[in-house]
Amino acid sequence: MIELKYFGHSTFLVDLGDKTILFDPFISPNPLASDIEIDKITTDFVLVSHGHEYHVFDVERIVNNNEATLVSNFEIVTWFKNRGIKKVFGMNHGGAKDFDFGTVKYVNAVYSSSLPDGSYGGNPGGFVVASDQGTFYYAGDTTLSYDMKLIGESFDIDFAILPIGDNFTIGITDALKAAEFVGTDKIIGMHYDTFEPIEINKEAAKTEAVGRGKELILLNIGESISL
């Protein structure tokens, strides 16, 4: 059983029992997440999909608060290492690493990536996390890609965390196709409603998902779910 807690935009805390993983921390500047007490968040690992500010803003604060390990592509971990973060692990597309909670594979995402100061952010990606508690796909920001079929062929995906806000990423229609590609019927939505271009009709999205035989789960900020 995996416990998932949502902190807004694309930020999720995943509890795997002995260890916790925080994805793409963007909390303190997000007015929708104003009730979240960021300094009370505890995590062992921080995984970053790409370098945009809306995914890395709180990396240093949370990593330093927790002495957590930062995992991302080589360019991003190098940038943060130069800013004083000591515990980092760099990856790149196709690579996998066994950690003490399970295995992380860094997979393709079709997007852009630059860091807040304009530095090159390397190639954007997503993550497949395989553990004794379950296996899931965190897509990061991406378009629909046939590379997702390789995930479905290589892993038994219990659920996928997918962007659904459209405009900058895939919307619900392509997210449902992505779920088909990776072989899951359970989608956790992310990257929606944070600002005007990615505001969505949530009920319409859920209805579309049901019509395609999928379950779309949209968590409230601060809400947890066991999967």
TrEMBL record:
InterPro entries: RibonucZ/Hydroxyglut_hydro (IPR036866), UPF0173_UPF0282_UlaG_hydrolase (IPR050114). Pfam families: Lactamase_B_3. This is Uncharacterized protein. It comes from Cyclobacterium amurskyense.
